[in-house]
Amino acid sequence: MKTSIIKGIGYYVPENIVKNKDLEKIMDTSDEWIQERTGIRERRWVLENSDESTSSMGTEAAKKAIDNAGISHDQIDFIIFATLSPDYFFPGSGVLIQRNLGLKEVGALDIRNQCSGFIYALSIADQYIKSGMYKNILIVGSELHSGGLEKSTRGRNVSVIFGDGAGAVILQASDDLEKGIMSTHLHSEGKYAEELAVISPATKKWIDKLVEDPDEDGSSYAPYMNGNFVFKNAVVRFMEVINEALVKNNLTKEAIDLLIPHQANLRISQFVQKQLALPNEKVYNNIMKYGNTTAASIPIALAEVIEKDMLNEGDVLCLAAFGSGFTWGSALIRW
Ligand code: COA
Q1: Pair 225, 162: CB distance under 8 Å
Q2: Does ligand 1 come within 6 angstroms of the Cβ of 265?
Q3: Which end of the chain has fewer beta carbons closer than 10 Å to its terminal beta carbon, N or C?
Q4: What's the gap in Å between 140 CA and the centre of ligand 1?
Q5: Among all residues, which ones are annotated catalytic?
């Protein structure tokens, strides 16, 4: 029997910082509105015309995670790539990582679970490791949102929230059953698929149909979000799935040493923190600096937590996410 441990971690964010004040120049918004509703002060957006892409950022994060794990490229047995903003419609970005890193011809799987993509990826990787199939799995969460956002007053409720960046981990098989992933919990509710979605391009609405459609105004290419509805569902599902993880492991909320919620909105994180009665030092947030980086948000936050030496051996780490789909999930990890 094996358990899965996070052996290495790395992250990468583009250099270009976009402050709320910068957004005031391109849309009808304000620093005050954005900070009050979301907690976000700034985010990273790749420079227009730069060569950066979802896979190139993921590659940089992956290199750091591999280095941090102290393994060679040849030891990687499998790749899982989570993103909602892939370089191409197809193929997925996992194969681009395989190419960029010059890895062996290992399997590469892409995950399409948006804000819960990293938790889904972790859960799948954990099963492969516990079954004995693989020893080292590279998980990457990367998003280049800025290219797909509607940076105008029409798109302001979405575009102010999302940022670019990447995080990666090496999940490794271990014989020490006292450590590692204790359990993962995954859910979905497809009846709300269109409440937070990008509808085009899609095989149902391909280019020729869009060109022919006199009503097409480009809005189906931009993310749509029913913000209030997403918010209300998020706070309920975060709590449910964290409690599910605690119950599964016969633990109470007091056992959580650190909670890293997916960085959707600071107000969502604060609501969850209050419900769990956790002190500030037990909840890590960095949305202020990066906005919502979707599949990258948890690994970027975890990488910063490690950098800051905030986790001790034996600590119980709780990860939880909610997002488009709707999908949501949690993971409990003994560090
Ligand atoms: N700047 C200024 N005003 C804005 C704005 C912006 N960027 N975006 C929206 N507004 C306006 C709206 O047009 C609306 O104006 P009106 O009252 O004149 O109609 C007003 O602000 C309130 O909009 P509303 O959508 O009700 O605000 P809200 O308090 O729900 O906050 C979100 C909006 C998006 C911040 C909030 O709903 C949210 O965070 N939802 C969850 C988002 C999320 O987590 N998404 C990712 C899931 S993983």
Answers
A1: no
A2: yes
A3: N
A4: 29
A5: 115, 262, 292
b/e per residue, 273-298, with b = 16+ CB within 10 A? Answer: beebebeeebbbbbbebbbbbbbbbb
38 lines ligand 1 (CB under 6 A): yes
Atom 40 of ligand 1: nearest residue by CA position: 227
Verify whether ligand 1 is closer than 6 Å to residue 151 (CB atom): no
**Coil/strand/helix, residue 17:** strand
29 close to 277: Cβ distance less than 8 angstroms: no
* Residue 227 CA, ligand 1 centroid: distance in Å: 6
Q: What is the CA radius of gyration of the chain?
A: 19
145 Cβ closer than 6 Å to some ligand 1 atom: no
Using CA atoms, how far residue 47 sits from 60, 84, 164, 333, in Å, is 17, 19, 11, 36
Centroid of ligand 1 to alpha carbon of 161 (angstroms): 10
Buried-exposed string 9-42: b where 16+ CB fall within 10 A, e elsewhere: bbbbbbebebebeebeeeeebebeebeebbbbbb
Could you list the pLDDT tens digit for every one of the 335 residues in the chain? Answer: 899 999 999 999 999 999 999 999 999 999 999 999 999 999 999 998 899 999 999 999 999 999 999 999 999 999 999 999 999 999 999 999 999 999 999 999 999 999 999 999 999 999 999 999 999 999 999 999 999 999 999 999 999 999 999 999 999 999 999 999 999 999 999 999 999 999 887 777 666 666 666 666 777 778 999 999 999 999 999 999 999 999 999 999 999 999 999 999 999 999 999 999 999 999 999 999 999 999 999 999 999 999 999 999 999 999 999 999 999 999 999 99
